[in-house]
Amino acid sequence: MPDQPRAFGFDTRAIHAGQRPDPYTGARAVPIFQTTSYVFEDPESAAAYFNLQEYGNTYSRIMNPTVATFEERVASLEGGAGAVAFASGLAAQAAALFTMLQPGDHIVASGALYGGTVTQLKHLSRKLALELTFVDPDDLSAWRSALRPETKLLYGETIGNPGGNVLDIRAVADIAHEHGAPLMVDSTFATPYLCRPIEFGADIIVHSTTKFIGGHGTSIGGIVVESGTFDWSNGRYPVVADPSPAYHGLAFHETFGMYGYLMKLRAESLRDLGACMSPFNAFLFLLGLETLPLRMERHVSNALGVARFLQQHPAVERVRYPGLPDSPYASLVSKYLPRGAGAVFAFDLAGGREAGTRFIQSLRLWSHLANVGDAKSLVIHPASTTHRQLSDAELVAAGITAGTIRLSVGLEDLDDLLWDLDRGLAAAVGARANGRTAAEVVA
Amino acid sequence: MTSDGLVCALPDRSSQEEIRRYQDPNVIREILHTARTVAVVGLSSNTLRPSNYVGFYLQRHGYRVIPVNPNERSALDEVAYPTLADVPLPIDVVDVFRASQFVPDIAWQAVEVGARALWMQFGVISIRAAEIASAGGLRVVVDRCMKVEHARNMGRMHWLGFNTGVVGSQRNPDAR
């Protein structure tokens, strides 16, 4: 009597999903298949691979066994039908859009999306004649009233940046589905450990795997996961459902069913846009996934400790961490992010641009750079770096102030992180935490 | 051949729970491992149709694929037969690409010809047919693709980043 199949837990799948040990060598680690191409068994097999009649390796721009292990592992953790990896998060996002949209289509997107995403959407809309409407992601009626007959996609982030908005995924997914459109969610800040948007009705998940999934600041990458449950044959997505001239008239959604969008994403979008993930980067991301549960636990507990410390510090005007109990997002956090609200958030420093600059200059442990989701704690002052061309009024419109500091809380000793922040804050505005040490505040 | 003309004309509103009873991974694996001959009801000779993709794949992986389709003379280099009763060799699996309301009839025929399993493809859902085949001693799979299940368990589905759900620390003995 064979065992009943077991539904393995998240932590087990973070280590095992997508890989059986190599059948020829028994290698236990995932081998790095650093190869461009693959020898065909015979001409018939080659033809079957190119016709998509058989799952086969042809060329590493389209598929690679190391990358595929990473893809399946992320798909398993997110609860999707499959995944396709890309050279970066922005490449993943562009390909996800490219696969489903055509000129004249309309996107309704959260106005709190990552700046690089907003830039890409604006650029794509000009180049590809797409229409865009940005809405306040917290206002469900704004999502609904922005819909048009040609609206083909709703797009938001699990956790916004820098405002820390938490998306009401279930409600926005329902709005999308009533309109016959999918909901796409950038879940980079949550990772599947903290939130799995597909469980709440989202259809497409994108990640910059550069961040917490990689976890060590070594590699750039991105991935698209799809649920397999959206009906691409509802008459609104001819680019997914109609016969493809590139494959002799193959209708991807009819022929591959729940895998149709993903097949099209790989066999057409990845093939044509060409931004494939390197096998070596996939190997590093797989190592990252193996410890994702452990790292995320520490990331969120450190983040909460830092947020509490800052909240009590006289040099700090406001802390925008959705994981704090008095956050306006507290009820959404308990629904969507019960294990923690991530480890990237902003706070506003009293004293404006000069105080921000002094704060950054005096830190000894936090690294001043433009990235998030590293084991190392990271910090940036938008008004003097990424947003330095903006006036104070323009900064406010972007949801930040001259004193806004963005943190990505790493895995160091919390007490050391607070020690350094306390020093920086003292240098910035000459104030210490009511005369107490950092350790006293946290205690 | 069947007495339930009215019933089989109605859409089959089965619950997910009923369907899941006919998606047992152990049954699926056992069918895939033991079957040799697969009669594909509704197999099209059009190479772009899903039935042709599945038949082609099963043929490549060593199964004898018999087209059963009154509208085809041949498909995938095999003679097509109008009904299951016309197939002149023992059938292990009846794999169905027909609208759900026609499947109870096909189930009765599958029992009569002594097939060992009835397999309904993605979107082909008839609990009535499943019960007929079960009562006749056949193993039954509902709303699953035979190609996908083969590729998931024994094939190369994981090469394209799909979530196979297969997890294990042993070398895959079925890898091919």
Which structural traits does this protein have?
heterodimer; A: 443 residues; Aspartate Aminotransferase, domain 2; Aspartate Aminotransferase, domain 1; 2 domains; 7-stranded mixed sheet; 5-stranded mixed sheet; 12 strands; 40% helix; globular; B: 176 residues; alpha/beta; Rossmann fold; 7 strands; 14% strand; disordered N terminus
What topology does this entry show?
The complex is a heterodimer of chains A (443) and B (176).
Chain A: H1 10-16, H2 43-50, H3 65-78, E1 82-86, H4 89-100, E2 106-110, H5 115-128, E3 131-135, H6 140-145, E4 151-157, H7 169-178, E5 183-186, H8 191-194, E6 204-208, E7 222-226, H9 238-241, H10 252-256, H11 260-273, H12 279-290, H13 292-311, E8 316-320, H14 330-336, E9 344-349, H15 352-362, E10 367-368, E11 378-380, H16 392-397, E12 404-408, H17 414-429, H18 438-442
Parallel strand pairs in A: 2-3, 2-4, 4-5, 5-6, 10-11
Antiparallel strand pairs in A: 1-7, 6-7, 8-9, 9-12, 11-12
Helix pairs in contact in A: 1-3, 1-12, 3-12, 4-11, 15-17
Chain B: H1 5-9, H2 16-20, H3 25-34, E1 37-41, H4 50-60, E2 64-68, E3 74-75, E4 78-79, E5 93-96, H5 103-112, E6 117-120, H6 127-135, E7 139-141, H7 146-153
Parallel strand pairs in B: 1-2, 1-5, 5-6, 6-7
Antiparallel strand pairs in B: 3-4
Helix pairs in contact in B: 5-6
